[in-house]
Amino acid sequence: MKRGSAAKTRQFYAAVGQRIARARTGKITQEALANRAALTRTSIINIEKGRQQVFLHTLIDIAHALDVPVMDLIPPSDSVEALLKDKTEKGVAWVKASAAPLKG
């Protein structure tokens, strides 16, 4: 792992958590979000604080529970691009396709 990568990863997950908290605040409680996303309240707290990394399928479940597009919970693409720069083309394509707005 390159020097500074861990810090960037922590910043990324902190930004994701802030976006989740912002989308949730005033709509539903952490407990209600946890129930809707099949998580524990402790997990929601840790995700919102950036202490717990969130799997992509879990992020999608959280977006559905909040009734927001998944992309609203992901920091601007330049941050994502920086994190993906050392990944394979196939991996990058999969992440981008998975993060595309859901249809249907």
Describe the protein in words.
The structure is a single chain. The protein has 104 residues and is mostly helical. The chain has one domain (5-99): Orthogonal Bundle (434 Repressor (Amino-terminal Domain)), CATH 1.10.260.40. It is built from six helices and no strands. The termini are far apart.
Describe the secondary structure blueprint for this structure.
Layout: H1 5-24, H2 30-36, H3 41-48, H4 56-66, H5 77-84, H6 89-99
Helix pairs in contact: 2-3
The CATH architecture would be Orthogonal Bundle
Q: How many DSSP H or I helices?
A: 6
Structural class: mainly alpha
- Radius of gyration in whole Å, from Cα? 14 Å
H/E series: HHHHHH
Strand percentage? under 5%
What ranges have pLDDT less than 50 throughout 5 or more consecutive residues? none
**What is the helical fraction, as a range of percent?**
55-70%
CATH class: Mainly Alpha
| Rounded mean pLDDT score | 85
The major sheet is characterized as: none
- What name does the CATH topology carry? 434 Repressor (Amino-terminal Domain)
The figure for the number of domains is 1
Total strand count, please?
A: 0
| Straight-line distance between termini | 39 Å
CATH superfamily: lambda repressor-like DNA-binding domains
Shape: globular
Overview in brief:
This protein has 104 residues and is mainly alpha-helical.
